[in-house]
Amino acid sequence: MQDVPVHGDPLVPEDHEEIKREELLALEQEVNGLRAALGSRTVIGKAIGIIIEREGVNETQAFEVLKVMSQHSNVKLRDVAARLAKGAQPAGNEEP
Question: What is the SS3 string spanning 34-86?
């Protein structure tokens, strides 16, 4: 009869608990990074839409405008996009 480790997973030997913790931490960090990237992408998309509407340009041109704004102000592109998106909202209509 095979011994079942204390943690209850018969496929992982007991001495692999530390590896499992490290893998879990790495996965949590990856998820947090992906969430941040998704949030950045969303706000950049909003800013591109605002530029398209205001300037009458296509998506590629709007991204270039946003990129130049970022470079000239020496501010990260996602931060420039966030400021632009926030400034375009009517007063009292802030997103949660």
Answer: HHHHHHHHHHHHHHHHHHHHHHCCCHHHHHHHHHHHHHHHCCCHHHHHHHHHH
pLDDT at residue 93, as a whole number: 54
User: Residue 43 corresponds to which amino acid?
Assistant: V
Give all domains of the chain, ordered by start, each with its CATH number: 39-86 (1.10.10)
Are the beta carbons of 69 and 83 closer than 8 angstroms? Answer: no
pTM: 0.60
- Per-residue pLDDT band at 22 (split at 50, 70, 90): confident
